[in-house]
UniProtKB/TrEMBL annotation:
Keywords: Aminotransferase, Pyridoxal phosphate, Transferase
Keyword Thylakoid among UniProt keywords: no
Name the record gives this protein: Aspartate transaminase
Record flagged with keyword Transferase: yes
PANTHER family in UniProt: AMINOTRANSFERASE (PTHR46383:SF4), ASPARTATE AMINOTRANSFERASE (PTHR46383)
Coiled coil: none
Domain Aminotransferase class I/classII large: 27-373
Origin species: Companilactobacillus bobalius DSM 19674
């Protein structure tokens, strides 16, 4: 067996979610998946493709009509300029995009710089290639990477080959303004590294317009995006990798070895999304923002410190000091006692300890139930704490 594979552990978030699903009636606020359905016109395009027998292999990088539509969409939405013939590959979701990009770039002994807390696949993907993740703890800087910290880490870690940058962020929901991105780019351009910019939540940005790092530093950026979050298409498994032609050509080699090509039916659905689904994300984004505001207000009322997320559909909050700070114990007790599933922050790495991640890709009814169950749990915890304190005082007196 390959040691780097044997060393990979099953994702804690998946194990916890499986436990939550095994409890009848549990309110599940763990899932990073839209609870909306794929827009009807996209589903109909896929059905038509099946009926028209469009069920054969395509070229590995993807149907060229699709890649043209992707290039136009990215240009219209974000001002990006990618040549669909040489700079775009359609992948089996962003997950495969990360995997193929890492495999194409990394060698044993290389390092990957990852702001933490972070989504859980990035570190294991680095390890799989014999590389090592280097984490930046962002918990003291509002969960953002600062130019000063980035400069120092790159200066002292010359083996870094990739800066894995995810924004809007899973799990924190933070994003970056154009000025903040430019400041980071000024640091990065001094180093011979790639930025792999995971922007899968780009269409779910609330407070300002999303700016792609592919526009800020195109010669060093490999952009990852797709339709899973923006168009409620997680199960279709569609992503794109975009970047400098010479790098994308190498990524496509890995992609071809891993998949031959992504499914033809998904490609026809994606073509419809990119051609005629420009406005599909808007009503979903508006609803997510309303849900964010409802959950945020409720958590604040219960004493949670919650920075307002300006993207994605997650709230990453500190457990109030008067309660147990072991986030794994807190989340497991909450699930056992109240049948409410929320992910421990430490599952997302350094800086996540003592935090919880709420997904508000859930109905308003689930959000209200979540807040009610959480309030009941906190009341029980407070009473248990007072009882324990009282018993301790009595025993000390005797």
């Amino acid at each position: 067996m390959k040691p780097s594979v044997v060393a990979i552990k099953q994702q804690e978030i998946f194990k916890f979610n499986a436990r939550a699903k095994s409890i009848p009636g549990a309110v599940n606020m763990t899932v990073g998946e839209p609870n909306f359905h794929t827009p009807e016109h996209i589903k109909q395009a896929a059905i038509k493709a099946i009926n028209d027998d469009q069920t054969h292999y395509t070229v590995p990088e993807g149907n060229h009509e699709l890649l043209n539509a992707v290039a136009k969409y990215l240009h219209d939405k974000y001002g990006l300029n990618y040549d669909p013939k040489t700079q775009i590959v359609a992948t089996t979701g962003v997950t495969e995009g990360v995997f193929s990009a890492f495999n194409a770039i990394l060698q044993p002994g290389d390092e990957v710089l990852i702001p933490s807390p972070a989504f859980t696949i990035y570190g294991p993907d680095a390890n799989f290639n014999g590389a090592s993740p280097v984490y930046i703890d962002t918990s003291e800087t509002d969960f953002k990477v600062t130019p000063e910290v980035l400069s120092e880490v790159l200066r002292t870690n010359p083996r870094i080959k990739i800066f894995l940058f995810n924004y809007p962020s899973n799990p924190t929901g933070v994003s970056y303004t154009e000025d903040e991105l430019i400041a980071l780019a000024e640091v990065i351009k001094k180093h011979n590294i790639f930025v792999i910019s995971d922007e899968i939540y780009s269409e779910l940005t609330y407070n300002f317009k999303h700016i792609s790092f592919g526009n800020i530093l195109p010669e060093q950026t490999i952009l990852l995006n797709g339709l899973s979050k923006s168009h409620a298409m997680t199960g279709w498994r569609f992503g794109v990798v975009c970047g400098p032609a010479e790098v994308v050509a190498q990524i496509n080699k890995i992609h071809e070895l891993a998949t031959t090509s992504i499914t033809s039916i998904t490609q026809f659905a994606a073509l419809e999304a990119y051609k005629n689904g420009y406005d599909d994300p808007i009503p979903m984004r508006n609803e997510y923002q309303a849900r964010r505001d409802r959950l945020l207000a409720g958590l604040n009322k219960l004493g949670f410190e919650c920075p307002t997320p300006n993207g994605a559909f997650y709230l990453f909050t500190k457990i109030p000091e008067q309660y147990v700070q072991d986030d794994v114990k807190f989340a497991n007790d909450l699930l056992d006692k109240e049948h409410l599933a929320i992910l421990p922050g430490s599952f997302f790495g350094i800086g996540g300890e003592g935090h919880l991640r709420f997904s508000y890709a859930a109905s308003m009814e689930d959000i209200d139930q979540c807040l009610s169950k959480l309030e009941d749990f906190l009341t029980l915890e407070k009473n248990d704490s007072l009882e324990e304190k009282y018993v301790k005082q009595i025993s000390e007196n005797y």
